[in-house]
User: Fold this.
Amino acid sequence: MSKKEVSLKYFPYLLHPRNTVLVTTVGKDGKQNVLAVAWITPISVNPPYLGISIKPGRYSHKLLLETGEFVVNVPTFDLAKEVTICGRKSGRTLDKFKEAGLTVKKAKIVKAPIIKECIAHLECKVVNSIEVGDHTFFIGKVLAAYVSEKHFKELYDVKEHKTLLHIGRNKFTTTQDTYKEIKL
Ligand SMILES: Cc1cc2nc3c(=O)[nH]c(=O)nc-3n(C[C@H](O)[C@H](O)[C@H](O)COP(=O)(O)O)c2cc1C
Assistant:
C-alpha cells in the first residue's frame, strides 16, 4: 500500500466521514438558530456529557456563550441538502429554519428548539467551554435524550436509519443495510 503525506490543514478529513448533526441554539433575546456540526463526540456516560467543537465567529458560538443551552438533533441522509444550508449560511443574516424548510418544536427542558424532521434529540446545558486552538470545545451535560422508535431499538436499526456522514466539503455518504456482529 503506497501512502502519501497530507498537509496538516487537511488532517481532520483523515478522520471523516463523520456523523453530522444539527445543533440548535437560542440567544438571550429568544432568537433561535441552527448550525451543522461534524465535530461532536460523547465524553462520559455517567454523568452524561458530550462535546462539540465550534469555531469562534460562528453566530451559534455567540448564542452558546449567551445562554449555554443547545440541542443536538440527529438528521438522516435524506436531509443532506438542509444540513448543507445550515452549514454554509449564517443565522446572523437569515432564518435558516425557513431557508432550509425545517420545522422547530419546543424542547422538553431547554429553551433551544428541536427540529421535527430529525430522528433523535439530545437536550444539553453547557457545563464547560475550553478554547483549543482555533475552536472552542463546549462540553454539554445531556439533560434529556429521545429518539424515533422506528429507527432505534437498543441500537440504531441500520435498515431503517440512514446516517448522515460528512466526507468533507459538501459531500456526504451513508451506511449500508448490512452489518457485522463479531462474537469473541
Ligand atoms: C457538514 C458540515 C459540518 C460542519 N461542522 C462544523 C463543526 O463541527 N464545527 C463548526 O464550528 N462548524 C462546522 N461547520 C460550519 C458551520 O456549520 C457553518 O459555519 C455555519 O454556517 C455556522 O452558522 P451560524 O453562523 O449560524 O452559527 C460545518 C459545516 C458543514 C457543512
